[in-house]
Amino acid sequence: MKRTFGILPAIVLCGFYLAWRPEKAFGFFSLAGSNFLVVLSILPPVFILLGLFDAWVPRERVTALIGEKSGIAGAGLSIFLGSFAAGPLYLAFPIAETLLRKGTGLFNVFLFVGAWSTMKIPMLLFEMQSLGVRFAAVRYGMSVLGIFWIAWAVERVLGEKGRRELSERFRP
Amino acid sequence: MVLDSTTTVILYGLTALLLGLSWMRDPGKTREALGKARRSLLLILSPLASVILLVTLALTALPPSLLSRLVGAESGIPGTLLASAAGSVTLIPGFAAFPMAKMLLDNGAGIVQVGVLVSTLMMVGVVTLPMERSILGWKAAVARNAFAYGHSFLVGLALWMAFR
User: Fold this and answer.
1) pLDDT tens digits for A133-151?
2) Most exposed among A15, A96, A102, B128, judged by the fewest C-beta atoms under 10 Å?
3) Is the CB of residue A157 less than 8 Å from the CB of residue B148?
4) Within a 13 Å sphere around the CA of A166, how many CA atoms are in the beta-carbon half?
5) What would the pLDDT profile of B43-97 be if each residue is shown by its tens digit?
6) End-to-end CA distance of chain B
7) What residues of A are in contact with residue B33 (Cβ under 8 Å)?
């Protein structure tokens, strides 16, 4: 499986832009710097925790808690895991891989990714603070509905065969 | 950002604690876990750096004042569609999206347009699609993004009803 898509196109694109608008360089580099700092501060501990999880938690335990047949409790736990996460959504994908490898049900993996994207609790507090309680409450409420119907609909799109392929893709 | 550094401290503390416990129980297994962490970290580094560069480029190239005008309260459906397109290009985390959304609202952007923008920013990511595909496969990745895009308009609709 090829996972690296080169960083070169992004560098070239940014280079062109900065050559065209050199006066934006300061803003660009300070924003890029703070973005890298945020991600680099989160990344190492997240991956070490994932490594420890992989080494210590047996597959059967995970499957029992959030596997294909874990029902409502499994769905709730998946959302809980996703909404207490830290970091941008693209960090959720490698975690989703570990969850799949440990036998997490597909629906629950999609719920986890969905909750990670829009239901993070620390973010909700921050949202209330910056956009107001009413805005945050409406958007958060819609997110709860959203992640369920999106998880359901993605499963339908995949179909029986696609679902089986994806849940077996990372199985040892 | 205060919130974020607190999260980081908790995250590092928890990691150090668990790493210590794991080492006391079984150094070999711990070394194995660390090796795995290092490998996954190296694998994700290049796509991640691309994403960060592209997000930064998008945010630098599109100033909030311009965006506010384009997605103003009177911009209607074209403004809403524009907001959804702008939000879909990148996936940016809430701590960057919310202050930006507030800035836009303060500059006269519409509540529906900002709601759609925030929702697509958080849930839909065309730039991150290759990364998502490498884990979930094309079909699921594209479907998730497409449905999340559609859902963002429902969020806009709900906000319109709440703020009418």
Assistant:
1) 999 999 999 999 999 999 9
2) A15
3) no
4) 30
5) 778 777 887 788 788 778 877 677 777 888 888 899 999 989 988 987 666 666 7
6) 32
7) 48, 51-52, 54-56
Residue B72 pairs with which residues in a beta bridge?
A: B109
Distance CA A91, CA B12 (A): 16
Do B97 and B58 form a contact (C-beta atoms < 8 A)? no
Which own/partner pairs from B57-61 qualify as long-range (CB within 8 Å, at least 24 positions apart)? Answer: B57/A10, B57/A13, B57/A14, B57/A17, B57/A28, B58/B89, B58/B90, B59/A31, B59/B92, B59/B96, B59/B100, B60/A17, B60/A24, B60/A27, B60/A28, B60/A31, B61/A17, B61/A21, B61/A24
Please report, for chain A, the start and end positions of each structural domain, with discontinuous segments joined by +.
1-43, 57-168
Taking the C-alpha atoms of residue B16 and residue B10, their distance in angstroms, rounded to an integer, is 10
Token pair of A118 as six digits: 């829009």
Q: Number of Cβ pairs closer than 8 Å across A and B?
A: 237
- CA neighbours closer than 13 Å in the CB half-sphere of residue B70: 14
Domain ranges of chain B: 1-44, 62-163
Please count the other Cβ atoms lying within 10 Å of the Cβ belonging to residue A148. 16
**Chain B (4-33) residues lying within 8 Å, Cβ to Cβ, of chain A:** 4, 7-8, 11-12, 14-15, 18-19, 22, 29-30, 32-33
